[in-house]
């Protein structure tokens, strides 16, 4: 059994990144909870899809998740300094749990010193800001630095999700989901 | 200006395929309407994400869309013989509009003789059924046969969506979205 995963949802989160990660983790039979950061019941994503998250963050944040995952999207700009999110990210990092973000979301880390000194990647336009904040910048599709996992954007979301499956469960499960879904076999 | 696109949503549609197509088409500034086939207000997708489609199909089906697009997912099995959907698919095909499906959804075509005689692809497990129904089976990630566009699964959903952008708008726009989102550039 792998520990459950918490995925943070907020207005204008990037549709594909969020849904690909939820989809792949659930295919790997990892228990996933999507939780609205500010307790919204419905959330309009970046490309206008309206979803109903599984829970409000305040109702589930004390649960023992093994990972916290933040999707990107232009809504990231509205939550960069969110103290509740920053506190949770720091807590997970200090407890050795997985702290993961993709696209614009790794930039949030710089406002809370999450993964400081390690190598992180992000959507390329955030590169200079992240480097200026004292991080090593990786150009890999998925960067793993201790318990901090980051990735670049919608096109790397499958690889990001599969890496999370590998870390939360095992490589065999990740490979199985990869073959079935991403690299479809004849 | 490209014509708007209609995307059919139904219970247990495949989360990633639906959302990737919506996301990419909207990035290309194509007017997209997600419409619930049986007029449900909220729909639970295959991997348990709950979405609120933009419209009920009965409210928008008479609008002049340039394409009808059907995602896959195990809910496909419940709508194979849906007369409303079958009728719409045939109507779009006969009018020379784009008729598109991915994963398990191309199998729906065989129940309504959509794209009959042409080459279509699908999630591999549907191959034999599709061939037995009198279709040429393609192993391409995206197959285009006259105005019928088909694809294989979550891992080919970006390529499928980008082909739809190319056909509904132009290659230049598809390449621009591809570079920005899928093949992320430094």
TrEMBL record, chains A, B:
Task: Provide the DJ-1/PfpI domain boundaries.
Answer: 5-166
What does the record list as GO biological process?
Answer: glycolate biosynthetic process; glyoxal metabolic process; response to oxidative stress
- Coiled-coil annotation reads none
GO annotation, cellular component aspect: mitochondrion; nucleus
Looking up SUPFAM superfamilies in the UniProt record yields: Class I glutamine amidotransferase-like (SSF52317)
Q: What is this protein called?
A: DJ-1_PfpI domain-containing protein
